[in-house]
Amino acid sequence: MTTKSYIKDYPRPQLVRGDWLNLNGDWDFRFDDANVGEKEKWQETFEATHRITVPFTYETKASGIGIETFHPQVWYSRMIAVPAEAAGKRAILHFQAVDYEAKVWVNGELAGGHQGGYAAFSIDMTPYLAFGADNRITVKVTDSDSCYQPRGKQRWTPDNFECFYVQTTGIWQTVWMEYVEEKRLDAVKITPDLDRHIVRFDYEVNGVAAGGDDLLLEAIVTFKGRPVKRVALGIDRPCLSVEVDLNHEATGPWKRAYWTPARPNLYDVEFVLTSGGRVVDRALSYFGMRKISIENGKVLLNNTPIYQRLILDQGYWTDSHLTPPNEEALIEDIDLIMEMGYNGVRKHMKIEDARFLYWCDVKGLLVWSEMAATFEFHDRAVNAFTKEWLEIVKQQHNHPSIITWVPFNESWGIGNILRDERQQKFTEGIYHLTKSFDPHRPVIVNDGWEHTVSDIVTLHDYVATGEGFLQRYRDNKDAIVSGETTCNQWKYALAKGYSYRGQPIIISEFGGIAFQSDKGWGYGEQVASVEAFMERFKGLTQAIKSVDYICGYCYTQVTDVQQEINGLLTEDRKPKVPLEQIRAINLG
Asked: What is the pTM assigned to this prediction?
């Protein structure tokens, strides 16, 4: 089951056009440790020292290079053929993710750039292209080991340590291009209102002339191929909104087709832009009618309490690290997670490929979307974090599977938040900025402990046994949320100056059980047998589920990641324990 808009490997599933070109594959490549490339004008005459397979970074085996040593500047170059018949259209170059700062030249002319390792960006190449000829694209990427830079689990030292892994430098998600008209739909923000049974489209339209020029944008909504509603809007300025009442012109069982994990119903929508009656743009998308809210200490999905059985997912692969090896690998991960009885993932310290979110939308897997952390508090870190986080929230907004935003984790980058008012105010600012763009999802301000204004109080605790968990939590809710005691023997649930407001409480990290090995680590003592593993897993999971004020959990984790060997699966996705037993415990 897919949406009407689905195209295999299409990198932006929320706004799909048919005329596109995938630029992944072989590129020329070169290191620039002395940072002399621009001075020597490599953008004009590029002499490669390597070939690299994009979108895999040079640190990975999948790239064809496999050098893990950090290099602060790297260059890419390739030729593209631009057909003569594309003249008169705009040629847009898209990068789904480049870590960290990119500068892009087309035929030696600087065409644009971007800063931020996890957000997608686009560049209009048209002024620099020769139509009907071959054209050269050259990209310089500058990375750093700065802890002011949002880097997530990427190490900033020469070697891996603790839970930090090989860095990711350069292009690490799909590069592609499309040909579009000057007058086109640049973006649409899709917001469902379940209680009113309407959907709101906030349009951003490019090429709107002053005074208007007979532009009309029509939204055609269908459900499983059946017509639901058509709404047309005259476009006289770049940003306009329309609300579509889904109650009208809809009959039968699809009239109120909500999105849930059990029934991930999705509406298809086609956007058609006409100018003087001529179609100038056509794009496909989809949306889910679902609502996330909080009442009486519970998280509600579509006005009904939902118990969240999440698993922590860092999205690493053996030979390609942060980059999924292919779309099938993303689907496999989702299927394995659901097979184990989990209804959601906490995507940890990574902004995942949009195709992963698409398949979560289609298959019904809940997602917590979490920003990659900085690791020092500084004005530069505040600026870099804020800019990129707002880009990401905008880009991911339309995915119904995302039910929670997580900008901060375990006080990373805000290490003195317990008492430091500047760091507290920073998290408050991010909370309110997120809410200003998306008031409809809960925001967890500092996942794990030392919360400020979080909508959910989440706690991390790697206590080894179910008995130990119950001793710490069963009768101690008031002491934990009041700050009378810590939540896990060393961290307080709330930062100083903040009080508990009746928020839902979720144990968002626990477990991390590892088998005996001298090649890595897990949490607590390593176990020697499957039986010992399952006994500990069952005891912890059942203990959490038995505490009535806890409304969900997140187990650490799906797979091993490099030196961290506490996954339910190995890094190459082989089960370590019987998955049907994991499922039975989760659903029991």
From this structure: 0.96
